[in-house]
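The authors assume throughout that readers already know how a fold can be written as discrete tokens. The format is easy to grasp once an entry is in front of the reader. For illustration, here is how one protein appears when written out as sequence plus structure tokens:
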Amino acid sequence: MTATAPGGQAAPVNPGGEVLRCEHISKSYGVVTALTDVNLRLARGEVLGLIGDNGAGKSTLLKILCGFQPPTSGRIILEGKPVVLKSVDQARSLGIDAVYQDLALVNQLTVFQNMFLNREKVRWPLVRNQAMRKEAREHLDEMGVHIPSVNVPVAQLSGGQRQAVAVARSVFSDPKILLLDEPLAAMGVKEGAIILDLITRLKREGNVSIIIIAHNYAHVLEVCDRINLIQGGQITLDKRTDETSAEELTDLVVAEYRRALEERQRSA
């Protein structure tokens, strides 16, 4: 099964196991076209890896799916029903949440305060800090996120720990779909392992579907069930991870570079 059938038609799907489908999504910014014709599907409990060169349109697609930007054309189908995502808050209310590279954590606040940011427990006129500490600790422990103390400012955590807190906070809101934009960017091996372990645990539990943008093919092949390659604003490859390899993915991207170089040389 592929995400894009011949002729640009949306791929056949399995309605019983599908949580999200995009049909013919395009996005233009004036004369600049970021996405031309994206057809994508996501199954319940699936981890989908989204790869491609810088500027291919990966982050643009995630911004559309989380309600940050509208598509120029196309439609989004969530659990079998077409939806029009008008805002990030609306997308969250429908069960779609995103974690970006900049994390959106407040470094000066503690771990538990970040976990409950904008949804603090209040017994008027007091904030229930003790209850939030306890619940944050329990949630992180359940997810296997090892933080020395929920009372420390997130600025004191490692990059991997901060990213894990950001992911845990999103999972805390019980999303149906979690969008991760480069969660392993600029991390060392030990820090990256924290996030890979967390994604693996979420996949094993099967309660949330995940789309993850990543550049490291080894990471994608390790934690994802399926891979989509975006080139020129379209998905050009849709394969299960056990049906492809880092070598094949590298060859496809290198071939794209060569075509681009040849076109520049012809037009020079």
Q: What stands out?
A: The longest helix spans residues 246-267. Residues 1-16 have pLDDT under 50 and may be disordered.
